Amino acid sequence: MHRAALLHFILLLLFVCLRLCAAALLKLMFPLFLVAHSDSVLRGILTMSSVAVLTQESFNEHRSGLLPEQRPSAGEDEEALPTYKEAFPPLPEKAASPEGTQEVAHTWTAKIRPIKSSIITQVFHVPLEERKYKDINQFGEGDQAKVCVDIMHKTGAHLELSLAKDQGLSIMVSGKLDAVMKARKEIVSRLQTQASATVAIPKEHHRFVIGKNGEKLQELELKTATKIQIPRPEDPSNQIKISGTKEGLEKAKHEILLISAEQDKRAVERVNIDKVYHPFITGAYNKVVGEMSQDTGARINVPPPSVNKTEIVITGEKEQVALAVAMIKKIYEDKKKNATTIAVEVKKSQHKYVIGPKGNTLQEILDKTGVSVEIPPSDSSSETVILRGEPDRLGQALTEVYAKANSYTVSSVSAPSWLHRFIIGKKGQNLAKITQQMPKVHIEFTEGEDKITLEGPTKDVQMVQSQIQAIVTDLVSRMDYAEISVDPKFHRHLIGKGGVNINRIKELHKVTVRIPPDNEKSNLIRIEGDPQGVQEAKKELLELASRMENERTKDLIIEQRFHRAIIGQKGEKIKEVRDKFPEVIINFPDPAQKSDIVQLRGPRTEVEKCSKFMQKIVAEMVENSFSVSVPIFKQFHRNIIGKGGSNIKKIREETNTKIDLPAENSNSEMIIITGKKANCEAARNRILAIQKELANITEVDVSIPSKLHNSLIGSKGRLVRSIMEECGGVHIHFPTEGSGIDKVTIRGPVEEVEKAKQQLLALAEEKQTKSHTAELHAKPEYHKFLIGKGGGNIRKVRDSTGARIIFPTAEDKDQELITVVGTEEAVREAQKELEELIRSLDNVVEDTMTVDPKHHRYFVARRGQVLRDLADEYGGVMVSFPRTGSQSETVILKGAKDCVEAAKKRMQEIVEDLDAQVTVECVIPQKFHRSIMGPKGSRIQQITRDHNVQIKFPEREDPQGNETAVQENGEASEEVREPADPNAPKKCDVIVISGRKERCEAAVEALKALVPVTIEVEVPFELHRYIIGQKGSGIRKMMDEFEVNIQVPAPDQQSDKISITGLANHLDRAKDGLLERVKELQAEQEDRALRSFKLTITVDPKYHPKIIGRKGAIITNIRTEHDVNIQFPEKNDENQDQITITGYEHKAIAARDAIQAIVDDLEGMVSEDITLDSRVHARIIGARGKGIRKIMDEFKVDLRFPQSGAADPNTVTVTGRPELVDEAIDHLLNLEEEYMADVVENEAKMAYMRPPSSSAAAGDEQRGPSKGFVVREAPWTNTNEKAPDMSSSEDFPSFGAPVAAKASPWGPKRF
């Protein structure tokens, strides 16, 4: 007994000693572990947040960065410092209230119940291994941020995210309880990786898990933040699937088993065991409880560590449950009796190393030593770790705990904060190399602090520290930075469009330049890089900023319609302007703003020049935007266009205008010409000339008082349009309204123009005397009948009454309105006649006629086109033919009486034509058929219209020469054909014409007239290529102009014969045109021979630049004046003094004399060198050479200043006539004397200027950096509070200055 007690005492004493040693060891090895909040991501390396834990001793040790034994004695200095209360005396406290008052107040306040806030805040933690989005470079952005925004919208809770040092995700959720719980469920399911598990309970227990209306299941899912899937009633499975986080799975599984156990009809036993003994019952990795369940056959449900419950539920057979309960109680009693505890202090930041990933370290210690390690919860501030177990095992467990806690260390590397991003590298490349080698080391950069914190295994941290220290040393030795202050309004100009300016500076000087964004409103620009590059970049940026301060802005008013034209397609035109004025920034307004203001910015002179240049462009555009419309008969549009658009293209190019023609299917005849007024008129005259040449078109001017023009045009042009339509489509052009011009132009065929002129003058006379207008209505289908064929009916009414009748056009809204214009009496009579006609048309009658059934098909063919034409022409008459196969001859006509009669008469004429119809064959070789048809069959269509016949062309001949058998009723005829007559025409050459005999004969003559004829014209072979022209343009033009085909023989034939093929009436014109072109070419050949005269002149090469002149001005003038070509020798030519002149002989001689005169003048010149002090050269030359040009122009001399690096920088050469050279030299010497006086004076002033003192700087260096205002016994020395920042406007606000809102500890809000 005594020996056992003694042994027990010795063991206790040993454990106490070990505990004291451990505490001392912790103090030595872990002096301080600081983790600072940061609200931003620095170049892809995430800063983490925690709270610094400082003891009074460690704070005093580390306040100056030295340990006690390293720090020099500073007792006197400390005593000299004022205390906090002396420096900042507190305000007097409020006097204590009398007791009675206090009692009353207490009584009053006792009745008030505190109101609890409905808003709660919870923090959820997602470990790194369970995070769904692990890309630390995209923290705060990407999918994770989108998920958080969606959760906030869906639940109404507020979320803030941060990352812990272990890369775990902390989410602070604020809101009402219900919203927080819903948000928690969403967070777990969408931000945490999902695990799954199954739990088997009897099928009959499933309904109790679901609950009434599913309420129990919803509550369980919300409480455990899991998704629980219960099999459907018809599914025989008893497995319930749970998905969610590991912690949630354990909780849900536990709750489901509890529900099942409650409903289980077998024995259920609940045993209350202190939570601290649960690890011994479950065993390491749940080995013990698993063995018990296997041995007893009972189900044992131990609540997981995260569930704060002491109750262990055992279910099964009674004997099994009793056996399991006994085993559990035995373990409990044994551990309660024998286990002891020791408590040790371990830094809060080291707890995670003791716990290990997913609690594996705790399980490992329990498995190895049988000791349970109890860690305080993460939301607790306690640092005490309790070890519970057998006394002889506690020492080993304690060693394991300290080993795990001490397996990680914290260190730091000093590095200026501006170098951090260079250490990190682009997209974290530099750090990635280190972290790949040492993945367990965490590297933390804190913004604004000149250090880098490292955390990880000791050996790894040391290696990483040495690597980063080497990088820092290298960067400090070869990098520098500078800061310059530039007004923010100039920042975007320093950057340039698309960053062109700043990128050029960066690339040129190999530096990085940080220009603050507009929202910062900072004027500080930071330059970092190579020291020399930094200084050069700083100098260039300051020069740019200085230049911009001298800039001006000018607004130009340019109509927005011109903006697109000035900019050009893809901006090529404005690029030319910007290249011409590179220092000027040109800003166009957004098209949506519809603004006319174009802003120019740059140096004053350049802005003025650019402004004048752009105004000139706009003036040209205004001049070029003149537009004129030319009415051209529709049938002549294709001739104006020409073959392949050759005619219209030529007119456009030669007149420099834009010509728009109406679409082919449009009824418009107007051709619109746009450009300069003179060019538009020229193009208009050329187009009218083409029309006049193609047809018998004339133009007549009629003088009508301008006051009558509007009344003659009529409402919407109806009156003048009726005259134009009646007179065969002539064009009548009135001058612009308000011009006061009386001239009205009528253009068209001669006869029609004369008729229109008479009608227009008669109408004008009526308007001058007395004009009357009346309106009446008739159905639109009656209009054609009222007008009659070719306008015959309406002409009779007009001739008998003298009134003009105007029918509506397709564009008019009221299609029934008919207008009658004329004298009152004429209008009355015409109105009466028309009303009678309309009344008779309204009187519907029905009539019949007989038509042979063989002709019925003609009327109803092509979907009844003939019947539709009859209805349109005769007031909508309805014609009904009998059904096919009825053999009836009766045709019924229904409509107005007059219309029916007219339609009946017309049908009889058609039947007569059909009865008298014959078929005539016209033999024309098939090779000419395409030519006869014309483009799109236009020529054949014209013949069918003119002669009222049908023309059918044969099928093409089979190229094999075989004829297919004629088929009858779908079967080939087996009759033996007789040999064909060799003199008989081929079927492919026979054109069949159907119609009246006399009309068919006329059509045959018309077809034969269209057969092309070929003639040959003799043209010298050497002229063939000129006739063909460049890329065939010459011959193509002639073919289009004369409507013939011209065939030039191949060059290898050396033939002088050119073939012309076309219509007989076109050949003569084409032949004459070709011969005329030959005469022109022969004349050009003779002229070319005369122009090829050459002569040479010998001129010393030193005079060549003077003869050429500035930018070639002199030589260009000689070339233009004498119409010659002057060629100077190339650099490699042997005869460098030979100048060649080519042109007419007399002009070449005159040009030679002009050059010789210049040479004579140059030979009479002299050159003299004078000495001018190089310090005055710049002033003599002037800004952009303005001064030197003035001297050279005034004295007619040439001045040459020495180049940089010349042997004598003071020598200036003056060249010119002797007397002018002397005058120029005197003037230059006078200028030198005047400017030198200023130079000497400036140098004298500089000499007296005090140089910058270096003593002050040296004194500052000796004094060292200022510590600022220091006090003793401040509140933050005794607490964990942070000392106030003297530079912070938040801690020390200025009076009247706004204070920035305090930033959230989780960083800026992103959603």
UniProtKB/TrEMBL annotation:
* Annotated GO MF terms: mRNA binding
Q: Which residues form a coiled coil?
A: 820-847
Q: Name one GO biological process term.
A: lipid transport
Location comes to: Cytoplasm; Nucleus
Stretches of Polar residues bias are at 1276-1291
Tell me the ranges covered by the K Homology domain, including all copies. 193-261, 265-333, 338-406, 407-473, 478-546, 550-619, 624-692, 696-765, 770-839, 843-912, 916-1012, 1013-1079, 1091-1160, 1164-1233
Please give the PROSITE patterns that the UniProt record associates with this protein. Answer: KH_TYPE_1
The entry's cellular-component GO terms read: cytoplasm; high-density lipoprotein particle; nucleus
* Gene3D superfamilies reported for this sequence: K Homology domain, type 1
Concerning CDD domains, the annotation shows: KH-I_Vigilin_rpt1, KH-I_Vigilin_rpt10, KH-I_Vigilin_rpt11, KH-I_Vigilin_rpt12, KH-I_Vigilin_rpt13, KH-I_Vigilin_rpt14, KH-I_Vigilin_rpt15, KH-I_Vigilin_rpt2
The lineage's top-level taxon is Eukaryota
UniProt keyword RNA-binding, yes or no:
yes
Indicate the secretion signal residues. 1-23
Ranges for the region named Disordered are 954-983, 1251-1311
- Tell me which InterPro entries the record gives: KH_dom, KH_dom_type_1, KH_dom_type_1_sf, KH_Vigilin_N
One of its Pfam families is KH_1
Q: From start to end residue, where is composition biased (Basic and acidic residues)?
A: 974-983
Give UniProt keywords alphabetically.
Acetylation, Cholesterol metabolism, Coiled coil, Cytoplasm, HDL, Lipid metabolism, Lipid transport, Nucleus, Phosphoprotein, Repeat, RNA-binding, Signal, Steroid metabolism, Sterol metabolism, Transport
**Chief place of localization:** cytoplasm
Q: Does the keyword Phosphoprotein apply?
A: yes
What does the record give as the function of this protein?
Answer: Appears to play a role in cell sterol metabolism. It may function to protect cells from over-accumulation of cholesterol.
Q: Identify this protein by name.
A: Vigilin
